Every structure is written in structure tokens, then in C-alpha cells.
Amino acid sequence: MIWFHRNPQHSVENENIEVTVCLLLFSTFFHLPQSIEWRICFYLLLFPSMKRLNNLDTMATSLSMCPSKGVNERKERQGYSEEFQAMLDRLDQEDSYEDGSLVLEKKRRLSFDQVKALERSFELDNKLEPERKSKLAEELGLEPRQVAIWFQNRRARWKTKQLERDYSILRSNYDVLKVEYNNLEQENETLTIQVRELKEKVLRGKAECNESLKEESPISEVRDRGASESNSNGVVKEESNVDSPLCVSGSLPSSSSVINWLQYSDSRGSPDKMFQTQFMRMEEQNFFNVNEFCFFSVDQSPTL
DNA sequence: TTGTGTTTTATTGCCTCC
DNA sequence: GGAGGCAATAAAACACAA
Fold first, then answer.
1. Residues with Cβ < 8 Å from A212, sequence gap 6 or more?
2. What sequence ranges are listed for the domain Homeobox (predicted)?
3. What is the pTM of this model?
């Protein structure tokens, strides 16, 4: 009975041959009749579902090793007894109808030419009007519904491809933006470092100024005292502040005083020109803030 | 040969439009 | 309410590696 195994990818023809060989052996062994009717009955007994997979005539011809085709079907059956012929007809009819509707054929792929014609038609217009559907169906020997289904599935495939294309475009745009963002981030970092260095220079300049003032203080004190003696309204103190604007004790220099100090020290030739130029430019653009040096947040990620 | 993944054909259920 | 479109899915056919 190992012969009767079922395999989904096993062809019906091969299986019929195997069954036939097995039946012949079985019949010989048990002295059973070896007529074609007996073989088919035996076959149907063992494989009641098989009558749906292949039509009975194919099975019968296969079992009898006499293949028949199309118009010869009735002729092939003429060799059967009347009762058996009637049974075949009855089974054929049962096989053709199920719950009042026709049993559908097994799923068949469209031929190359059919697909080519449908593709051509789809390229012209991916929507199918009833007239075109009927015409195409007639030309290709298909059911109008098959044509409609093909167009429907083709539209779905086209849509999927289109989505993939759109995605790849968006992806490449995103990659470009990301590279630009990384460059800007790097630039921002460089500028931040540069600003920090400038700030340190400013503080260092202030310290140097304080030291130099300490050295000059006895002279100025004498001068101040003399001036205050001659003029008691404090004008001289202002003059001394003009000479050294950064030296206002106890607070950081204001931006205007920093500029004045730069001009002052430039006249003496101590800070370098580049430093002054950058500093002035930042001052003009209101970029400079003593407590905050970052140009923009680096935490902000690029978005499309 | 067989298991598995992909493609193609077909069905079902829902929605929109006329 | 019927026709047609669409998304989700089933199932058969096919391709291919092991």
C-alpha cells in the first residue's frame, strides 16, 4: 500500500501509473478481475477525492494506458458497458456542478502573448472601461472578469513599485541633508571653540590691564589728588576712566568698554589686529554674549 | 526530491460613486 | 442598489537552493 501515498507535487499521470501497477499486482494476487471498470471502481474507492482533480475519462484512459483527448472522449467510452457508461456520465455531471455552480478550473497562468497584450493595454491606460475589457477578453480568449482582475492586480503591483521608487528618492534626499547637517554641526563646533578662545583672550587682556594700572596707580593718585584739590566735581576721575576704560573695579567689562579698551590697547599696539576685527564684527552683529557662546543647538537633529 | 520563498491569479469584504 | 475599485488574503504556480 506504500504505492498509494499522496504527494502534492506528484503528477496525476505518474500516480495513475503507479496505482495501475499496484492494482494489477493486487488483482493477480487475489485472483480479482482486471477489467478497466474494476480498476476505476477500486481507484474511486481508495481515492474518492481524486475524481475532482482529474476528469474521469483522463483517469480511465490513464488507468487503461490508452490516452484520449478532446473530441475522442465519447469514442473512448464506447468500450465500456452501458451501466458503467451511465455511471461515468453521472459522476461527470456531479463533478461539473457543486452546490449549483460550476466547479472552477484549476488556476492557470496566462500565456506569454496574453500577458504581453495586457501589458501593452495597461501602458496605454491603467483603467479599464467596460468596452475595452470586453474587446480585450474577446481578443485574448479570456473571461472579461479575468481581464478586470489582471488589471486590478497590475495596478496594485504598479502602486507597490511606485512606493518603492518614492521611498528611494526620499531616502537619497535625506542622505544629502544628513551630510549637510553634519558639516554644519562641525562648523558650529569650530566656531564655538574659536569664540571660547577669544573670550579667554579678553579676560587675559583685562588681567594685564589691572596689573599695569596697579603699577601706574601712585602717579595717578598724586594727579587725582592735585586735580581734586583744584576741581572738586570729579571730572578728573572720568578722564582717568577714558584712559583705561576696562579698569572699572568689581565687574566684567561692558561691550562698549571692551571696544574702547581695544582701541586703547591698539594704539599701544598690544592685541593683534585679527582678534580685534573679529571681535568688532561680532559686537556689531550682536553675536557676542559673555555667558553664551553657542551659535545654535547641536542637539537639534536634521528633519526632512 | 523537497522545502521554502516569490509571483501570479483569484476571492472576499468594504467603500465610493452614480 | 448595483458596478467597480481597492486592500487584504488565499491558493496555485513557479524558482531555486540544499
1. none
2. 101-161
3. 0.46
Chain C bases closer than 7 A to any CB of the protein: 3-8, 11-14
How far apart CA A143 and CA A129 sit, in angstroms, is 15
DSSP A65: T
Strands A101-102 and A97-98: what pairing? antiparallel
Q: Between A144-230 and A235-243, two packed helices, what is the crossing angle to 10 degrees? A: 130
pLDDT bin (cut points 50, 70, 90) of residue A155 is very high
CA-to-C1' distance for A159 and C10, Å? 21
Angstrom CA distances, A256 to A20, A196, A206, stand at 110, 19, 14
Q: Taking the C1' atom of B8, which residue's CA lies nearest? A: A109
Q: Residue A225: is its pLDDT beyond 80?
A: no
Q: If you count DSSP H runs as helices and E runs as strands, how many of each does chain A have, helices first?
A: 12, 2
> A50-62: per-residue pLDDT in tens?
333 333 333 332 3
Q: Residue A13 half-sphere exposure, CB side, CA atoms within 13 Å?
A: 4
